[in-house]
Design goal:
This protein has 409 residues and is α/β, with parallel strands linked by helices. It has three domains: 9-127, Serine Threonine Protein Phosphatase 5, Tetratricopeptide repeat; 140-310, no CATH class; 318-406, Fusion Protein Consisting Of Minor Coat Protein, Glycine Rich Linker, Tola, And A His Tag, Chain: A, Domain 2 (2-Layer Sandwich), CATH 3.30.1150. Helix content is 37%, strand content 18%. The protein is built from 14 helices and ten strands. The protein has helices at 33-51, 55-67, 73-89, 93-107, 115-127, 147-153, 176-180, 185-196, 219-222, 254-260, 290-298, 318-327, 329-337, 374-385, and strands at residues 2-4, 163-171, 205-213, 230-236, 266-273, 276-284, 308-310, 346-354, 360-365, 398-406. Strands 3-2-4-6-5-7 form a six-stranded mixed beta sheet, covered by helices on one side. It has a four-stranded mixed beta sheet with strand order 1-10-8-9, with helices on one face. A hairpin with a 2-residue loop joins strand 5 (266-273) and strand 6. Helix 1 packs antiparallel against helix 2 (55-67), helix 2 runs antiparallel to helix 3 and helix 6 packs across helix 8. The longest helix has 19 residues, at 33-51.
């Protein structure tokens, strides 16, 4: 039996009905004494967040300053990031993430001073993996380069020693490739050139054209240039099966992929092509397991001649539980909105077991619950029982404790 309990920020899943952040701020031209005092209080609160102390009080002070439009510009960005960190430190994971997302959305596609900090926190809180702090769009040398990227770089045809054109098409997948640098071919080429001639002044010119598609349907778009493209396929048995119609594009037929996945393990395979970039395949029974397969591939220094088996997690992964619960967010929200106004703030902590078929069994309220109105409790438990998770077959039962925090709008 596997038990998942939110004992750390990386594994805490909280659904929240209100945002931590206020709306856009108006500029204030005159600093009144009260504004100066508010600024001092805000700086003290942000300092407390940096030290990890008095987080509840710091959160309240920062929220008040934002709601009163007491800070603008970069100072507002600093305050919002501090608020997000305070929320995460108080185990209010959803507020922390939504605060970051709101700040990033406000800036849109423009560059801003705290952008990399926000990106790094978002990756850490949603994936549990740290992104290197030195990432920079303007400095490609700071981006991660996986060991296998050097092996893949050797399959890229080169018209000259000074210039390399790289075309990459990914069919499926998530942020794993970026975090690992699996296909950072340009970085691998530059590192290899420096090793070959450390004192050379020559600057290798690379041009990368990278396309990402949700699934295999992008093959139709890339078909014309497929022979010049480093193609990467992600295959899973949930919704990521690739039809046999496209077998000619894969390292191995889809029927062979299915047969190999019957043992419940994942694998990766590479097809090298004379005078053309390689074709890479990651396959696993479940979509969430593909990250484990790619991680195993990324650390290799040579491309495999035959498919390589990868042991993948058998039980439900945190990202799968989170995705399934968020898909039913509307049901839980309806339970809360059915309460008489004024609606109270509080937490309902669900405790339930998920059987091998992905069905919820034995749903109940756990000790962290502070909202116990009979009709509300019944509604929440019915909502939990309606959630469908990926089927694990013989992998056994998974028990979950899942707190859901509510706040009135």
């Amino acid at each position: 039996m596997k038990t998942i309990s939110p004992v750390s920020p990386a594994s805490l899943f909280v659904l929240v009905l209100a945002s931590c952040t206020a709306g856009p701020a108006d500029l204030t031209e005159t600093a009144e004494p009260s504004a100066v005092a508010a600024s001092s209080a805000l700086e003290a609160a942000m300092h407390d967040v940096d030290r990890g102390v008095s987080l509840a009080a710091a959160r309240s002070t920062i929220e008040a300053a934002l709601q009163q439009n007491a800070v603008t510009g970069e100072a507002r960005d600093d305050a919002e990031l501090a608020l997000a960190v305070a929320c995460e430190g108080l185990d209010d994971h959803e507020h922390a993430v939504s605060t970051l997302e709101a700040t990033m959305a406000r800036h849109g596609r423009s560059n801003w001073a705290r952008q990399q900090d926000a990106n790094r926190l978002l990756v850490r809180w949603l994936t549990g993996t740290d992104r290197p702090a030195t990432r920079s769009r303007s400095d490609s040398s700071a981006l991660p380069v996986a060991p296998v990227a050097h092996a893949l770089a050797r399959t890229i045809p080169r018209s000259s020693k000074e210039r390399v054109d790289i075309a990459i098409a990914r069919f499926g997948g998530d942020e794993t490739s970026e975090m690992l640098g699996t296909f950072r071919i340009d970085g691998a080429l530059r590192q290899d050139a420096e090793v070959e001639c450390p004192l050379c002044d020559r600057d290798l010119s690379t041009h990368t054209s990278s396309s990402g598609y949700v699934d295999w349907t992008g093959v139709a778009v890339e078909a014309e240039d497929f022979g010049k493209t480093l193609a990467v396929f992600y295959y899973d048995q949930e919704a990521g099966k690739i039809p046999a119609r496209y077998d000619a594009y894969l390292p191995m037929p889809s029927a062979a992929i299915e047969a190999r996945l019957q043992d419940g393990k994942g694998f990766y395979a590479v097809k090298e092509r004379p005078g053309a970039p390689a074709i890479v395949l990651f396959a696993a029974p479940r979509r969430a397991q593909l990250a484990s397969v790619e991680s195993a591939f990324a650390v290799q220094t040579e491309l495999p001649k035959e498919p390589v088996t990868v042991n993948v997690p058998k039980g439900l992964l945190p990202r799968e539980i989170k995705a399934a619960m968020r898909a039913r967010f509307g049901a839980f929200r309806a339970c809360y909105e059915a309460l008489a106004e004024p609606r109270p703030a509080g937490t309902f902590e669900l405790a339930f077991a998920i059987d091998g078929d992905g069905k919820v069994q034995s749903a109940s309220s756990a000790n962290g619950t502070t909202m116990r109105a009979p009709g509300f409790e019944r509604c929440m438990l019915d909502g939990a029982r309606s959630v469908e998770f990926p089927a694990l077959g013989g992998a056994g039962e998974t028990t979950v404790r899942y707190p859901i925090a509510f706040q009135p709008d």
